[in-house]
């Protein structure tokens, strides 16, 4: 059903659950996973999963980059541990919604699997979460995991 | 990851896609699927998938019941065709959001997999879709398929 799946990942618990669902879907048909991390300046101190400590509100660019690489690497590891063979991971800069949509189109993925709320969404509750916007604008199937 | 999955089904294309995702998740770990249909009086003529014709706006209760049984049976067939062994299907009356949440709790399911919008949601756009409300109030993982 799905041959290539895009999984936007931040350090959030929602993203971790979404990755687990994506891995299960990918395994069955040997689909390839594309993990996408988009570093964001967060509005509050945030606890990241995957064994990474909190990134502070006023984190320097270097700190954010280092955390980003760690998130990418841990997520890749988690996908491989779950038995997915084809895993690719990338870091891209930009507005999260637009970057996810652009990447999904560019790579022509069959599905986007993402958490219902990411780390950056607390400040964005008024205008709606990234997943909400993505699921309305994407050309492909969007699976939102809560 | 998921041992029992609740799949609310109406005759919509979204529900059909959700069922396909649920089947793929279920197959891998031999999870059981519980298909739940909640007949609704629709606000407009509606084209149902699964080879069932449109149900008219002023459908009689008998017509709605017959359509409901057909939706249940076709969905069960689709799940079995997709290779899922443990499929159970039920029809329940009531408010869709509340009925889905109640059934999920009562059956202690691990996940609810549902379409992002069902047939009854066109009239309900202002107050939000059923899937939106379910994903905010459920105790378990909710996977919304668009």
TrEMBL record, chains A, B:
Source species: Halomonas pelophila
Q: In this protein, which residues make up the domain named UspA?
A: 1-146
What Gene3D superfamilies is this protein classified in?
HUPs
Membership in a protein family: Belongs to the universal stress protein A family.
Instruction: State the SUPFAM superfamilies in the record.
Output: Adenine nucleotide alpha hydrolases-like (SSF52402)
Q: Tell me what this protein is called.
A: Universal stress protein
Pfam families associated with the record: Usp
Signal peptide stretch: none
